[in-house]
Amino acid sequence: MATVLLPRSLGELFPDMTRHLDLDCDTIGAVIEQLDQRWPGMRDRLCEPGPRIRPFINIFVDGQRAGLDTPVMTASTVHVIPAVAGGCGPAPSVAGRVVSIERAAVSIERAAVSAALRVAPRPGFR
Fold it and tell me: Residue 85: beta bridge partners?
C-alpha cells in the first residue's frame, strides 16, 4: 500500500481527516478518488474540472512531480503539498546596495515587530 501524506491545511476543511494513511491505488487519480470517498469534497479541493490537478496543489510520488495518470506503486510515498504564494522579486537592496536574502529577511522581521509594537491593544485584550 502506498503511503499518502496530506497537508494540515486540508485538515482544517475536513476535521476528521487523517494526515497519514495507506491506500491501495495504481494512479494518483485513483488516490484522489479514494480520498474523496472517505472525505466527500476532497476531489474538488485537489482537482478542477477537466479533470486536472489544481494549479496551486502539488502532488509528488517518490519525490517526483505527479499528474493524475502518474503510477503509484505499493511502496510509493505520495505527498500532497499546497503551493506557497509569493516569492522574491529582484534582489533586495538597502539604500541601493544589494543585500543577502537572509539579511533582508532579518530587516523585514525587525520592521514587522516594530510595527506590531506600535499597534494599540484592543480593549480587554491582555
Answer: none
As a whole number of Å, the CA-based R_g of the chain is 21
Pairing mode, if any, of strands 2-5 and 77-82? parallel
| Closest to 23 in 3D by CA, of 75, 97, 85 | 75
The amino acid occupying position 116 is: A
What average pLDDT does the structure give for the chain? 79
Q: How many residues does the chain have?
A: 126
Question: Where do the DSSP E strands lie in the chain?
Answer: 2-5, 20-23, 47-48, 52-53, 57-61, 64-65, 77-82, 93-94, 97-98
Integer Cα distance of 60 and 86 in angstroms? 21
pLDDT at 27: 96
Give the span between the Cα atoms of 100 and 114, in whole angstroms.
Answer: 21
Q: With CA atoms as reference, report the closest residue to 31 among 48, 20, 43.
A: 43
Residue 59 has pLDDT above 70, yes or no: yes
Distance CA 53, CA 31 (A): 12
Ramachandran category for residue 49: left, alpha or beta (phi over 0 → left; psi -120 to 50 → alpha): beta
